[in-house]
Design goal:
This protein is α/β, with parallel strands linked by helices. 36% of the residues lie in helices and 19% in strands. The protein has a 7-stranded mixed beta sheet with strand order 3-2-1-4-5-9-6. The chain is globular.
Length: 280
């Protein structure tokens, strides 16, 4: 089995398990509503340490393509530092938040292409960037090939050291009695790139996770915190809450700042990047 085949098999296993838990999802836009709003940030905020590194690769004259850019958490700050920002995203809910956020921030050089990346036509840029998307891409080779073909100078992919949809895996096992199928991580993407002959540079970015910074202050809030995310079928929430309560002292440590989840690892963001034309 090639690295690309293994990658696709992991994505298949994750979604097969998801169907077993949730049934066939009939929601046309799973990223809409509260989910989209959770990814909306002030574009004019002070850059965190990770965004500082990402922005350092962008030049004022650049056209930047943000593949799966969502509500513009990364793309809109980059729009303030480049000539033009193109967000290619298939989610209408995310696109709505992106456009509204750009308008409120007075950003006029950012545009939206409402489309899956694989179907977006004639979208090119000096830098093609994609954050937190590759975990979900079954056919990873065509996806990467299109990133590379669309870029005139550089491709940049950022991923977390563990796939964020899997960060509740220990709670998943308590509720459903089996391990949650893992989505691919950077350790699965890099062999694919090497099979493709792409000599990517890998850089651990200095900052930690941007989510979950505020610790729950009460025991009920901590239980609710443990049940966040789309991994949990709503009908299973009562028994999931019971499972968390029964294992509370193992799952949380009481600190002066609040209840700290013990199953969260040390999440680090990785930048995987290469210059167009580089090959092994």
């Amino acid at each position: 089995m090639t690295a690309a085949e293994k990658y696709g098999a992991m994505v298949d296993a994750f979604y097969a398990q998801k169907i077993w838990v949730h049934g066939n999802d009939t929601d046309d836009d799973v990223w809409a509503g509260d989910t989209a709003r959770a990814f909306r940030f002030d574009p004019r905020r002070e850059l965190d340490a990770n965004l500082e590194v990402i922005a350092s690769y962008v030049q004022p004259s650049d056209v930047v393509v943000d593949v799966g850019g969502g509500a513009g958490r990364v793309g809109l700050p980059l729009a303030l530092r480049c000539q033009r920002l193109i967000n290619v995203d298939a989610s209408p809910g995310m696109g709505q938040e992106f456009l509204a956020c750009a308008q409120e921030a007075g950003i006029t050089n950012a545009e939206l292409v409402q489309s899956p990346w694989e179907e977006a036509l004639e979208v090119t840029g000096d830098v093609v960037f994609s954050s937190d998307v590759a975990y979900f891409v079954r056919d990873i080779v065509p996806f990467v090939e299109k990133l590379d073909a669309a870029a005139r100078r550089r491709v940049m992919i950022t991923l977390w050291s563990f796939s964020p949809p899997n960060r509740s895996a220990p709670i998943y096992r308590l509720v459903y009695g089996e391990d949650q199928a893992p989505l691919p991580a950077y350790t699965d993407l890099l062999p694919v790139l090497w099979e493709m002959g792409i000599p990517a540079d890998v850089r651990f970015l200095p900052g930690g996770a941007w989510w979950g910074q505020e610790l729950p202050q009460t025991r009920p809030q901590a239980v609710e915190f443990a049940l966040q995310g789309r991994w949990l079928q709503p009908k299973d929430k009562p028994r999931a809450a019971q499972a968390v309560e029964a294992n509370f002292d193992r799952l949380f440590a009481a600190e002066s700042e609040g209840f700290r989840p013990q199953w969260h690892g040390d999440y680090r963001e990785l930048l995987i990047t290469w210059e167009v034309g580089e090959r092994l």
